[in-house]
């Protein structure tokens, strides 16, 4: 027998011994690596990778209180988190809403009323953030109306029934311990028309922006309540998307929400920088932009959160024109879980945004 064949049994035996020793020396993992990763809780604010690389966002941006989506684009916040967002601006909130509902845009910065109404359609959408939960109107009345009691039986102007100015009237009446039955609500037109009607004496009271308070009180009109300083909630615009889109892109929705939260927070943490972007967008000088940005802090919701009663109030306003809207469950039109997730993973803490 050749030496080659004589060595074969010995090599096989040695191999078996080596394999046995190697097997004994290598412990069997008790937990799979993937399970360990899943069990690790994220607390440093790290965001997940979005499912999409790019998306379209539609918004009507007429004032600093609506600026967060565009600010996030201009400041490069979306791209910092791996997402290319193109913001398209529309002339009105309704246009931004229709663009989202039709699929022209992926995400919209729209009002709660449109989202509540969408629950009655085949394309329901959900609100993820709210940038402002206050109105900035005051209730101004003629010289002879000095108290809430004096308003009873008097005419109060609004733009249109069921519109934002009507919401301001209802909030003011609530704050003054009155009801809509105590006054005569009259649709006359936009703010300029309301002010003209107030000056002409054809109406007794009207909701007017507090930026005109000095002018109106200087003419002898009485301010009965300043809604910008009240805690009466009325949600303005905020991020929203179709339910079908949210189901397919939960990480993308979280990243968009986080970017808007960071942009909103910049108005407090770096108002000079935010004002610079607003000056560019609105084509005004830096000083004026800074005044508007800092002034908006009293109106804006820094945390982007809101309460159910603000949506219920919106529904009440809508019911003035569309009574059937009261059949909708308003909780179906809102979802605070994305903001809650950002709190849970430490994103609020990471950007120094105080929780409410």
Description:
With 356 residues, the protein is an alpha/beta fold. The protein folds into two domains: 54-133 and 234-350, 3-Layer(aba) Sandwich (D-Maltodextrin-Binding Protein, domain 2); 137-229, D-Maltodextrin-Binding Protein, domain 2, CATH 3.40.190. It has 17 helices and ten strands. It has helices at 3-25, 33-39, 68-74, 77-80, 93-101, 112-118, 148-151, 164-175, 191-200, 213-218, 243-248, 250-269, 271-282, 286-296, 308-318, 337-344, 347-350; strands spanning 54-59, 84-89, 107-110, 125-127, 137-141, 155-158, 184-187, 205-209, 222-226, 238-242. The strands form three sheets. It has a five-stranded mixed β-sheet, with helices on both faces. The radius of gyration is 29 Å and the shape is globular. It starts with a helix and ends in a 6-residue tail after the last helix. Residues 1-38 have low confidence and may be disordered.
**Mean pLDDT score, rounded?**
88
Helix content: 40-55%
Question: What order do the SSEs take from the amino end to the carboxyl end, as H and E?
Answer: HHEHHEHEHEEHEHEHEHEEHHHHHHH
The strand order across the widest sheet is: 2-1-3-10-4
Distance between the amino and carboxyl termini:
88 Å
Q: What percentage of amino acids are in beta strands? A: 5-15%
Number of helices: 17
- Tell me about the largest β-sheet: 5 strands, mixed
Ranges with pLDDT <50 over ≥5 residues?
Answer: 1-38
Query: What is the CATH homologous superfamily assignment of the largest domain?
Result: Periplasmic binding protein-like II
The level-1 CATH class of the largest domain? Alpha Beta
3D shape: globular
CATH-level-2 architecture of the largest domain: 3-Layer(aba) Sandwich
Our Rg estimate from Cα atoms comes to 29 Å
Q: How many domains comprise the coordinates? A: 2
CATH fold topology of the largest domain: D-Maltodextrin-Binding Protein, domain 2
What's the β-strand tally? 10
Structural class: alpha/beta
């Amino acid at each position: 027998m050749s030496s080659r064949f004589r060595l074969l049994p010995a090599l096989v035996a040695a191999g078996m011994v080596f394999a046995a020793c190697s097997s004994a020396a290598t412990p069997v993992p008790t937990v799979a690596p993937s399970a360990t990763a899943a069990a690790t809780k994220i607390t440093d604010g790290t965001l997940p990778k979005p499912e999409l690389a790019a998306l379209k966002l539609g918004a009507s941006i007429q004032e600093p209180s609506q600026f967060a989506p565009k600010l996030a684009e201009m400041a490069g916040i979306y791209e910092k988190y791996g997402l290319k967002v193109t913001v398209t601006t529309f002339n009105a909130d309704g246009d931004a809403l229709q663009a989202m509902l039709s699929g022209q845009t992926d995400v919209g910065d729209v009002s709660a009323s449109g989202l509540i109404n969408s629950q009655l359609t085949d394309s329901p959408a959900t609100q993820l953030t709210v940038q402002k939960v206050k109105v900035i109107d005051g209730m101004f009345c003629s010289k002879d109306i000095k108290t809430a009691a004096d308003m009873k039986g008097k005419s109060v102007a609004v733009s249109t029934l069921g519109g934002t100015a009507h919401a301001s009237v209802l909030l003011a009446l609530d704050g003054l311990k009155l009801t809509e039955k105590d006054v005569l609500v009259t649709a006359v037109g936009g703010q300029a028309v309301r002010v003209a009607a107030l000056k002409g004496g054809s109406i007794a009271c009207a909701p007017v922006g507090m930026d005109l308070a000095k002018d109106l009180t200087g003419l002898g009109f009485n301010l009965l309540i300043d809604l910008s300083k009240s805690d009466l909630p009325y949600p303005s615009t905020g991020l929203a998307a179709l339910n079908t889109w949210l189901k397919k892109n939960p990480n993308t929705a979280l990243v968009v929400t986080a970017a808007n939260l960071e942009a909103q927070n910049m108005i407090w943490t770096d108002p000079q920088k935010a004002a610079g972007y607003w000056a560019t967008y609105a084509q005004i000088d830096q000083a004026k932009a800074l005044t508007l940005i800092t002034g908006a802090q009293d109106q804006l919701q820094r945390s982007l959160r809101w309460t159910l009663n603000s949506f219920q109030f919106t529904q009440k306003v809508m019911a003035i024109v569309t009574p059937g809207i009261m059949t909708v469950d308003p909780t179906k039109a809102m979802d605070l879980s994305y903001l809650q997730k950002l709190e849970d993973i430490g994103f609020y803490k990471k950007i120094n945004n105080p929780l409410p």
